[in-house]
Amino acid sequence: MNNLEFGSTVIIDLGSDTTVSGFSDDEYPRSMFPSVVGKMNEQNKKKYPFNYKEFYVGEQAVSKRFFLDLKYPFFAPWEITDWEYTFELLHHTFYNELVICPEEHPLVLLEPCLSKNNNRMKLTEYLFETHNCCSLSFLSDPEMSLYNSFIKTGLVLSVGASGSWAVPIYEGSRIEYATKFSSIAGKTIDQYLLNKLNSKGNKLQTTAEKEMVKDIKIKHCRVPKKIKQESIVPISYELPDGKFLDLDQEILESPEIAFKVGKLKDLGIVPFEKQDNFINLHEIINQAILSSPIEIQDLLWQNIICVGGSTMFEGFASRLQSELYNLFAENQPTIKVQSVESPMFWSYLGASRFACSNSFWETHLSRKEYKEWGLKTVMKKFLSQSFQIFAVPSLFEPPMMNWGAGGGTGNGNETTEKKNESSFSDQVNSTIPSIKSRKPTVISVMNTFVTNVQGLIVESGSKINTNFKAILKKMNKIFGSNTLSGEMNLINRWLDRRGDDLLEIMPKKSKETILSHLLMDLLIFYEQTYPPIKKTETKK
Question: Is residue 447 part of a domain?
Answer without folding.
Answer: yes
